[in-house]
User: Fold this.
Amino acid sequence: MEARLPMEKIDRLTTIIHSLLQQSEVTKRDLLVVLGHMNFAMQVVKPGHTFIGYLPDLKNRVQLNQECRLDFTMWICFFEQLNGVSLFTADRIDAPDFLLYTDAAGAIGYGAYFQRKWFASKWPGRLFTLVVDDMSIALMELYPIVMAAEVWGREWAKKSVRFYCDKATVDIINKGRSKSPGIMRFLRKLTLTSAKFNFMCSVRHVPGKHNHISDALTRLQIDRFRHLASQACRHPNACPPMEELIVSENTTNYSVTDNELDNLWASAVYHCTYEVYQAGFKAYALFIAIYSSIWSSSLPHISEELLLRFVAHCHNHQNLRYATIKTYLCRVRFMYLKAGVPNPWTLGNLTRLHTIVGAVKRQQGYTAYVRLPITSSILTKLCHLLDQGAFTSTLNIMLKAVCCLAFFAFLRCGEFTCDRFNPHVNLCFNSVMFARDLSSLTLTLQSSKTDPFRKGVNIVLHRMNTAICPVHNMLTYMYHRKQSGTSPHDPLFVSPSGSALSRKFFIQCLKTLLSMAGYDDKAYNGPYNGHSFRIGATSAASKGVPDHMIQTCYTRYIRTSQVSIRKAQIAMTQK
Assistant:
């Protein structure tokens, strides 16, 4: 059953609370007004009594202390996120959906066990600093419960959960309040989390002698835990920092998660560049671990001197090229910028580093990698080999469609392959739309280097009477995919294992085909690679196709008639 507060009640109560928070003291009448509204709202907000636990005694004029302000803040958080909706109206739970077992050992740590999932950790030192005058066994027993709600709360959404824990915590959670400010810091978070995910909780006391699994976790006796819970997951869940378990007065919008922020950081650079960046930072971390020391913080030590030695290490021991070293440095800079940690790039100039990187460039000299284009004649030979059965039937059909699409759409290799598939970035099955008469197809690129704002780029390819026709080959491929079952947001091209087509697998297949066609290109960095299809634009230019017509394939702002584009694509097939 769903219970909902009228929107006008929510708006009125929110306005009153915001007004009170702007004042250092309030009148008895003001408190009576807000308490009246809260009393009505608690018919829906079942744990609302927790939010008024520290409202001051009624006097003519009263000071709003920090605890009172935190209670007011809780109401604002609840209304901003949930609009006063509750799916539970019962006051008790007879048959809970989930069971959670927790325990705490004062001198060691805490732990929790929930449906094969678990966590265990030592006490954070900051906890004893935060509640130095308010530490108690009840607070310690409450801490893993609040942690469990933060870790698994999303899985408890719209369900009921029963906590089995020490007796000291049972009364506190059932009442929803405590005279201890330290306990209330965490109890508010538990209440807010239950409201956020709309789960209802009850508590039962379980004697420590019967709570063997949680007891083993709190004492960090992992071997004993494995023996008692043989079906438990192999790895524990990560425990978030203690600061995430506390509601502060400034907490008025808690919905921005670390994952959401990480997604924005990942979008700060092109996704292919981000993957290269990952390798760069791993190389730096490994270098520090080998040549410097093990670090205790989330990021290794950094200084200009260490960066100089890292560059020398990459150049002399890893035999990396200048461009790769420069990319690795960009990744290191990006990681420290993301973490907000002081680093040589923000603390001063890097004249020495620029000088050493320049020296690497001069020592290595300029090496021009020869990249040959895959012309229409080469593409025809490759398609002929695929028709003859170079690989398995399914793989032949897919590779033929990939090669023809990449050639006529001037695609970069990273635009039709990926190591980690993201339906919002990479080509999906619904990225290709055919005209009703099957005379053309429209390919939608959701992301590319020339489209940093991800507005999308539409590339129209036309049917032509040739074996390398992209429309015919894509139509054949997508028909076979549909026969095997697929969804619109699946990867457009898949490897035999069913995963998204990776760059490495595609290049291996391409090298094999080129070798079979008589082109000696066995080396991974040979003259032909995935970019050779895009370089095939040179063959189009040599057929008399104007430059602006080639740009039309990738630029949405050049308006060219489809008749002209079709003639240009037919010209590309001429041998």
Notes: Residues 251-256, 554-559 have pLDDT under 50 and may be disordered. The first strand starts at residue 3 and ends at 4.
